[in-house]
Specification:
The chain is mainly α. The model has no long low-confidence stretch (mean pLDDT 87).
């Protein structure tokens, strides 16, 4: 493990201890306007959600993953909804340190 990875792991473990393992992060905190504008054609996650055809973010989980993935491929720089979520989490975590 590289020194940077070891430090990141240690920082994440320390943060988890401080915040508790059940600390929730809002989808607006993950899918910031900066992330959305950089990687999608939408100004905010709310515009993305509406264009996807659902009323709110929580309804995305009820959709067929193929339908969400197809929308993501067409409207963003990502190849899947999973990849888009991973990038959002990664950028969120990097801002914490």
């Amino acid at each position: 493990m590289t020194k940077e990875k070891a430090e990141l792991k240690q920082n994440l473990e320390h943060l988890a201890e401080q915040k508790g393992s059940q600390q929730a992060v809002s989808y607006q905190d993950l899918f910031t306007p900066q992330l959305m504008q950089k990687y999608t054609r939408f100004a905010t996650i709310d515009f993305f959600v509406r264009e996807l055809g659902v009323k709110d973010f929580t309804q995305i989980e009820q959709m067929a993953i193929d339908q969400v993935d197809e929308f993501v491929k067409k409207e963003t720089k990502f190849t899947s909804w999973e990849e888009m979520q991973q990038k959002a989490v990664s950028e969120y975590m990097m801002k914490l340190f």
